[in-house]
Each structure stands twice: as C-alpha cells, then as structure tokens.
# Entry
Amino acid sequence: MKAVIFPEPHTMEVVDIDKPQIKKDHEVLLKIKRVGICGSDMHIYHGTNPMATYPRIVGHEVAAEVAATGSDVTNVSVGDHVVVEPIRYCGECFACKNGRPNVCKELSVFGVHEDGGMREFAVMPAKQVHKVNAEIDWDEAVMAEPYTIGAQAAWRGNVQAGQTVFIQGAGPIGITVLKMVKLLGANVIISDIMNERLEFAKENGADHTINPSESDVTAKISEITEGEGANAVIDAVGTPKTFELSVDVASPAGYVVTLGFDKKPSAIAMMQITKKELTIAGSRLQTNQFEKVIDLINTRQLTQNGLVTHKFPLSEVQEALTFVEENPQKVRKAVIEFD
Ligand SMILES: [Zn+2]
Ligand SMILES: [Zn+2]
# Structure
C-alpha cells in the first residue's frame, strides 16, 4: 500500500509499505478516505515542529472506513464511517487523572509523535475512533478534528451565550473557533490581515471584522464593546504581539486563550492580569470534544460551507503541499482524497 512519508525535514516521498495488520484484540484496521493538511503538518515538513520526530507519516485530520476489527472491539463495526481522535496518553499522570489527557506527560499524537493517517490503511486502538453517520459526506467528516480544536478553545475560554468573543486570525483554526463560538451564541469580532479571510468569516457568522493593517484594533474593540473589552479573546495567530493585544483588549473577568507555540516571550504587565482578574488559558488539541462535534456534524449544525477549498489525490501530495504553501489566500483547508 502507499504511504506519504517525511524521511527528514524538507523531504517527502510516496512509498510502498506493507499493509498493517491487527495485532491486538482492541485494535481496528482503517481504510483511509480523507486526510486534511494542517499548518502543523507543514511545520513537520519544514522541520519546525519541535515535537515531531523523523521519519514520519503525517496526518492527524483523518476520516476513514472500518475495514476490520479485533475481537474485543465493541464501539465500531466493519463498514462504519469513523474519524480519528489523534491522542494517545498514559491515564496515570496528573493531567490524565484530572481529565486533561491532551496534555499527558507521555502524550503521543497520531501523525506527530507516531505515524499518522497519510497512508491507505492504518491500525489503531478502537477507543481512538469515533463513528460518524454514513450519510455524512467525507469532506464534512474530515473536518471533525479541526472543529475539536475550535471547541476546545471555546471551552478553555469559558465562552457563554451573549458574550463578546474576539478571535485573532481568520485562517482555518480561527474559522473553526468562530463556528463553535457562534453555535454557543456568542457575539464575535474577528481580525485578520487578509480581507478575503474576513469576508469568509462574515459568511460564517462573524458579527464584526477588523483588519489590523487598516484600523486600530484596540480602539475598534473598545467601540464595539462600549469600553468593556472582549469577554474572551482567542488568539489563533500566536505571536508575542497578538498575545499582548489579547491581554490588552480582554474585559475585566475575561479569558485569554492561547493556541500558538511561539517560544519568544511577550511583554505583559502583571498589573493587567491582576487588575482585570483575567484567566489566561492555553488550549492544546482537545479533551472530550469529539462526541459533541460529531453530534453537530451528524445533525448538520456544523458544515464545512466552503472551508474545504482544495482536494488532491494521494499521487499529488507533493503538489498539494506546494500549493498550500504558496497560496495562503486561496487555500482554507486542502484535503488528500483516497480511493
Ligand atoms: Zn490540524
Ligand atoms: Zn498521562
């Protein structure tokens, strides 16, 4: 069978490898149908993801059909359509015991720390797959994992109906956050330096858009919120500056959620946090969000609505990576389509 492998940073090969076999009773064999290309895959390609090791088969946004099941598997059957929950964890550490296995000290992410879904077949523990209604289009199902990222950010930001949420960045992650917080009933302000992205955000429910290269973000947020600030600020850009801005424009008793992995420090005065009693929350991967997201997909409350802009066959994965890289204005989400 074919697999897409990154042998080392900056190189990619489509290779022929043996089809994997179920070895344990709790495992399932998946026939892969769609794999989304994510910003983090591009970082692995460029050698800029500090968590990835090589050689690596990437792909953590995966929709598949169950091709075989081990004898202990009860949650899915052969022929079921499923999506992959990409986290594997120890169950014993402080984070795991506190319901936060997504930050387990032994965390292994499918397609990052271990081989992922960019291959024709994969074997994995049945508890890491979730069934999706078979009528749901594969292009909708493959968006489940990205939506869980948005759902997690909304949860970490304690977003409630009627609140004003400011999302920085209207790329794919910012849009998944937007979709989730709109479903929660929030009033949303979103910013991006690309007007095309802001237009798409409006089509997906954004109430206010700001282009920071054209207007003063702080002043606009103050105007929209009548001086209160945003009750939750979700930073889907993730630079030292956007983090500083998040803290500046958050309302008293507000939440600031970070999604980025920038190592450079931000200059944030303690006074801002104490005076407004802000909660600063990191948001990484997801915890228990798959069930909620799949329910929203199955009931068509959550649809990709133009978020999947490009599809490539497995044989054109190199073209796909190059295209994604060179066309940030055109590509929202590109997916690899398997036969
Ligand atoms: Zn991703
Ligand atoms: Zn753990």
In short: The longest helix spans residues 144-156. DSSP finds eleven helices and 17 strands in the chain. The CA atoms of residues 36 and 335 lie 4 Å apart.
